[in-house]
Amino acid sequence: MRDTIDDWPTGRLLSVAARLVEQRWRESLERIGLSHAGLIVLHLVERDPLPLGELARRARVTAQTMGRTVEHLERSGYVRLVADPSDRRRKLVERTEEGGRVFDGIGAIEATVFPTVEQAAVLRMSLLQIIRHVGGDPEAPGPDGADDGPARAERG
Amino acid sequence: MRDTIDDWPTGRLLSVAARLVEQRWRESLERIGLSHAGLIVLHLVERDPLPLGELARRARVTAQTMGRTVEHLERSGYVRLVADPSDRRRKLVERTEEGGRVFDGIGAIEATVFPTVEQAAVLRMSLLQIIRHVGGDPEAPGPDGADDGPARAERG
DNA sequence: TGACAATGCTCAGCAAGCTTAGCAATTGGA
DNA sequence: TCCAATTGCTAAGCTTGCTGAGCATTGTCA
């Protein structure tokens, strides 16, 4: 009875699948100096600049992690940090032209990176359920401010 | 039109969901000095000791990463490293009694950590599809040796 | 047998999660 | 007005992914 992955708990399958897909992304992204985390940021600031903390909330990571990811993006020239005149504690993250070009070119390969699954819609729905259940819903505050609930700080 | 997570690509949802679930695990595991990665190892060596490389293949991580995870487990006293007399390059990873006790106590909380999803069976099937598609099937060699395919080295 | 390739593991270094601790700016109440 | 709490971000340190490089052992073949 050779141990087989079919018996693994779902949480473990989730971790492994996510890691493998992220790795596959890395293979596509590394040649343009972008990471999967950076890709998410470029996506989030597609329309308007956002403060660092708001980015963190939306991506469900801590402000510290987001700070470092943005720092790398900035070094690559894909985003720019702008001081918020209305609140000097804040730094707004803004996409550069180069960042926009790179991001727009990526949409095409998105389909080739993520493998085809039979019941994709159900998969999406399940993942959203998990995220909502475990991670809360940090999108309530809205893009123009961050006055509402903390992202996932209810455990600190 | 406030940006909402529902529009995110599935790969990104997968990453976020996996991370959130892993964090929840950490909250339960940290008080006993165990990590999610360590938990997987304790699971894999439940029956018999396995060489480090075989563990890496089954968990779909690199040998270096597995080496470090096992090192931490060893420091916590949950596994033991035994030299393989038949191949002195190898180190067999073996669960200690303490490791067995801890692992057995964890099964109970497994259900409380992973949230309930409506179509759990479809979710599992989808995750397995992704893993098989992206990560290959490194379980072919069998537990008593590692003579077959490399885990995910076809890209090196 | 002796040289070369393959295998198993380790070391060093990077990215991206996390935590705790801390500084600066803003807000709010006495 | 002024002090204290809150908020936004940074610093330092840990784990776990990764890569590339390197050492020891084993296997293979001339």
Characterization of this structure:
2 copies of one chain form a homodimer. Chain A has 156 residues and is mainly alpha-helical. Chain A has a single domain (9-135), classed as Arc Repressor Mutant, subunit A, CATH 1.10.10.10. Chain A contains 6 helices and 3 strands. The first copy, chain A, is globular. Chain A starts with 9 loop residues before the first helix and ends in a 21-residue tail after the last helix. The model of chain A is unreliable at 141-156 (pLDDT under 50). Chains A and B meet through α1, α2 and α6 of A and α1, α2 and α6 of B. The first copy, chain A, binds a DNA duplex (30 and 30 nucleotides) through α1 and α4.
**Tell me, what's the shape of chain A?**
globular
| Oligomeric nature of the chains | homodimer
How far is the first residue's CA from the last residue's CA of chain A?
A: 44 Å
Can you list the strand order of the major beta sheet of chain A?
1-3-2
Task: Provide tags for this entry.
Arc Repressor Mutant, subunit A; 156 residues; 8% strand; homodimer; 6 helices; DNA-binding; mainly alpha
Write a short abstract of this structure.
The first copy, chain A, is mostly helical and 156 residues long. Chain A is built from 6 helices and 3 strands.
